[in-house]
């Protein structure tokens, strides 16, 4: 019996053990499932990425923007080569925008600045400052500096004689503002470096540029012209920068159009149409920020704009309404001065806005739809080239060569965007003995060698043979390409015409079109690093309109550049950029050898019984939206305010919640600051506010900030002042309660 009980107990124990194990297994399974479910609920969803493919290369991206506005009084504006066109106020401020991309082993920096062009002197001074701050991180090979080519930026930042003559010399406060502004934009981009992604997109913008030298363009081979629908580049290309969450950081864009919507009668500092495109795009992205502030940076860079004008209504004889002469752009009555091209607006301000708005809107469309992501490593290739001594082989028996710099007679004729003086005409292949005689007496004749080299250009100034007090033109020129994945930026040292740009893009693409560079998108960035005027095709050069007469290294200039840029592209494709010869370094002339024709301003004087900041012409008590509020103050010379970067000479303020809030500064499109220079130190300042239709109703005032200079014995005293208008109301109708 004892044995039977024992066996029954063992069987029960076994059953209980099996049941326990089964229950334990089920419990563990349920706990595991529950734990996995809870864990999955805790995991955040992956951020939405604009494209399906994950990034192959993790880029570090930094963007930065800084004010580079210099003295806004007395200093010549750079572009129309008119020393009488000196600054007299602010239409919009000038900014430098910097974009840094790093792939973990290599880094490139692209700067687009609201300046007429990047001079060799400006580039060298910026690179020196960057070296002091960052060592060898930012160098001549991986830094591209491009000017937007506004013709209403400040002059005075060149070291070669011709440019110093037309700029009234080397003006330290002007170039110092540019250098400091550019370096500060780089500092901001450098500090803001963080992981991000880059997308590219391109499209067509039809209604914003016109070829101003169609006769020259038609001299290009017919079979080449037949490959293109238009005689200007309508292509706009954008780079979209985002962080890893897809939030926008910046935009960089290229479109071929001259920023000459603001014409040669303008006296206010202005960033012109490309500057307006940046302004509009940034204001759209930086909600709640004043212009020039906010994290998003939108750079609109110049491209192959040599013959591309924003004056899309074209040139007409203003005194008759008839078309201008097709070859030399002149009129039967009034000559070339009567042949003027007009933009789409009623005046230059409206034309600037319309062209800039067109570019900005197209860029926004491309930015929103950009889905092609860049992957791959970064490369940079750079050389200095002596462009006066380049040989170009055409075949096994024939070669061409470049020339010492020289400008033709048609250079002095100007363009339909801004005509020159006297009786010079575009399309001149004969020259003029009268002007040649004056030239010979003043600076000497060109050598026979130079005349032969430049044919059919009749030489007006043989600048390559003129070295007093310093060389009149550069001989050593930068050529440079940077690539980010399958995107190549060709940095060119001047103004390439439409067809010149097409040829150089095609040549670079052919060299890069292998391995990871297959189907590379190539853009031309204009007015980079050194300024060498224009670059036409050989065929366009034969016509000798303004652009051909301004192609300073002769008829084979483009061929020489194509040869050099092919070499850079090949070195990038073959990973041999380290073997490229650096070439001869350009000079950096001592400042004591550079001249300055701008005198220090005299001491300021206020009219009798008034003081600085007093109101001479008061605002009205009420304005409707769409009207212009205007006030005039007793003012000092704006040059006495010194470095005006990151400041404002104007505010428009709205009274709200018992305090005045700034709604506009002198960086705003809606404000204009006019400085009116009087005699013996007396001057006024008129501030205009073009009240936008969207302005909030309420009470406003306008303020002007400045400084005046006084002399007491041998002591100069600079004193700040503020002028304040009366308060006034803004309403949508004069019938208000």
TrEMBL record:
GO biological process, alphabetically ordered: ceramide catabolic process; long-chain fatty acid biosynthetic process; sphingosine biosynthetic process
Q: What is this protein called?
A: Neutral ceramidase
Q: Which GO terms describe its molecular function?
A: metal ion binding; N-acylsphingosine amidohydrolase activity
Give me the comment on cofactor binding. Answer: Binds 1 zinc ion per subunit.
Asked whether the keyword Transmembrane helix is assigned, the reply is yes
Its EC number is 3.5.1.23
Which parts of the chain span the membrane according to its record?
12-36
UniProt domain Neutral/alkaline non-lysosomal ceramidase C-terminal: residue ranges: 566-730
The UniProt entry, under Pfam families, shows: Ceramidase_alk (PF04734), Ceramidse_alk_C (PF17048)
Q: Where is the Neutral/alkaline non-lysosomal ceramidase N-terminal domain?
A: 59-563
Q: Which UniProt keywords apply?
A: Hydrolase, Lipid metabolism, Membrane, Metal-binding, Sphingolipid metabolism, Transmembrane, Transmembrane helix, Zinc
Residues at the active site: 309 (nucleophile)
The prosthetic group or cofactor this protein requires is: Zn(2+)
